[in-house]
Design brief:
Layout lengths: L4 E6 L4 H11 L5 E8 L3 H11 L3 E4 L2 H13 L5 E4 L1 H9 L5 E4 L7 H9 L3 E4 L2 H7 L1 H10 L2 E4 L2 H9 L13 E8 L17 H5 L8 H9 L1 H14 L6 E5 L5 E7 L4 E5 L5 H9 L13 H4 L14 H11 L3 H17 L5 H14 L8 H20 L7
Parallel strand pairs: 1-2, 1-5, 2-3, 3-4, 5-6, 6-7, 8-9
Antiparallel strand pairs: 8-10, 10-11
Helix pairs in contact: 2-3, 4-5, 5-6, 6-11, 6-15, 10-15, 11-14, 15-16, 15-17, 16-17
Bound molecules: nicotinamide-adenine-dinucleotide and magnesium ion.
The site of nicotinamide-adenine-dinucleotide (NAD) has 26 residues, from helix 1, helix 6 and helix 10.
Length: 399
């Protein structure tokens, strides 16, 4: 019997997926890469499958899956290739998988993340949008199935590391009065309000500290990423929105903090490199190397902290309002954001209109209680329709 643990990496060709494989490559005795999943990037996934002797590859796009199947067969690889979102959900729930890295971007990751939770796996959660939209429903499934949910988002992973021993997300942590999420402030931290309307997708994606996929990079530039993270923190750590603070910290060295009732504040520090939270979650409750260089504090010299500017970056306020409203409000917010960010990346919407579209969608659609997954999916679809409508017929306001 092998001591290796079976790992599935969803979104393996993305930024988090590639960083996960880089950590796994340092510990070949610990992991067997059972499943890799992505949307359509077949050449990248074929290379990964060959390098890591992967058992099953799933590409959601059937044409890309055909190309990957042929390429792998031609080089004599035994890797099985499947296609479709249902195949991805089935592959993560299979008995040869013990841990699942959920790193698909956006609502598209919900089905496979839920499948992993329901199959009682250890789920390493990067796909914050799945948690934001499904909210308490997903957390209830975690508890019911006895799954382990370990946050990969650097802030939430930092908080997890600062929690009492044996704490797992979903529990209420004793003695914690507040968590403080740090935010780099994004590429426009010092930009004048009037200049934001004309920024380009490439400028928005040029993050000063983190190298990430384009969707989360735009979210970081609008600060909606921090808004989604506030909602994520309320769910993971069982805290009301009022006990989740945000502070801008441009150096991105302190990844977040936990405040206890005795006055202690615990923080996790490290280089801004996702391989650290990924390695922490893969090894938990042990520790192992991530390949990340240690911090040189003397070189960094000073750590700065500022309050976020809500006027230039209204997203944070919208997300907090959605957290307070509860029900389907976070799903509406998330879906409107996904549509607006994609329109911005496609040069169909200007930067400041992203939050304007989200605001309008939330004004148009009322939040309703979530009783079943269908309520979340209906809200997601309705918000997407409303956002597309506003962008396409936006009476010039968003052009
Ligand atoms: P990315 O754009 O680099 O990669 C996205 C991956 O998802 C790709 O492998 C792509 O093929 C796959 N994908 C996209 N649509 C899909 C679909 N419909 N079905 C199946 N697979 C699909 O994104 P990323 O930066 O790696 O981010 C992934 C997730 O991790 C996001 O939810 C993001 O918010 C979160 N996250 C990322 C970082 C980071 O540093 N990159 C940090 C914290 C959290
Ligand atoms: Mg983060």
């Amino acid at each position: 019997m092998s001591a290796q643990r079976g790992l599935a990496i969803l979104g393996s060709t993305g930024s988090i997926g590639r960083s996960t494989l880089a950590v796994v490559a340092l510990h070949p005795e610990r992991f067997r890469v059972a499943v890799l999943g992505a949307h359509s990037s077949w050449q990248a996934i074929v290379d990964q499958a060959r390098q890591f002797h992967v058992e099953t590859v799933v590409l959601v796009d059937p044409k890309a899956a055909d190309l990957a199947r042929t390429a792998l067969r031609d080089c004599g690889s035994p890797t099985r290739v499947e296609s479709g979102a249902d195949a991805l959900a089935a592959a993560v729930a299979a008995p040869n998988v013990e841990m699942v890295m959920a790193a698909i971007v956006g609502a598209a990751g919900l089905q496979s993340t839920l499948a992993a939770v329901r199959a009682s796996k250890r789920v390493l959660l990067a796909n914050k949008e799945a948690l934001v939209m499904a909210g308490q429903l997903l957390m209830d499934e975690v508890r019911r199935a006895g799954a382990e949910l370990i946050p990969i988002d650097s802030e939430h992973n930092a908080i997890f590391q600062c929690m009492p021993a044996r704490y797992l997300p979903g529990e209420v942590a004793r003695g914690v009065i507040r968590v403080i999420l740090t935010a780099s402030g994004g590429p426009f931290r010092c930009a004048a309000a009037g200049s934001l309307v004309n920024v380009t997708p490439d400028e928005a994606c040029a993050h000063p500290k983190w190298k990430m996929g384009r969707k989360i990079s735009v979210d970081s530039a609008t600060l909606m990423n921090k808004g989604l993270e506030v909602i994520e923190a309320t769910l993971l750590f069982g805290l009301p929105e009022s006990q989740v603070d945000v502070i801008v910290h441009p150096q991105s060295v302190v990844h977040s903090l936990v405040e206890y009732e005795d006055g202690s504040m615990l923080a996790q520090l490290g280089a801004p490199d996702m391989r650290t939270p990924i390695a922490q979650a893969l090894a938990w409750p042990e520790r192992f190397a991530s390949g990340v260089q240690s911090l040189n504090l003397a070189e960094i010299g000073q750590l700065g902290f500022e309050t976020p500017d809500h006027e230039r970056f209204p997203s944070l306020g919208l997300a907090r309002a959605a957290a307070r409203a509860g029900g389907t409000a976070p799903a509406l917010l998330n879906a409107a954001n996904e549509v607006a960010v994609q329109a911005f990346l496609d040069h169909r919407l200007n930067f400041t209109a992203i939050t304007a579209v989200i605001d309008k969608v939330l004004q148009r659609l009322d939040s309703s209680p979530v009783k079943a997954l269908g309520d979340v999916l209906n809200a997601d679809a309705a918000a997407r329709r409303a956002a597309v409508d506003l962008i396409e017929t936006g009476s010039g306001a968003f052009a």
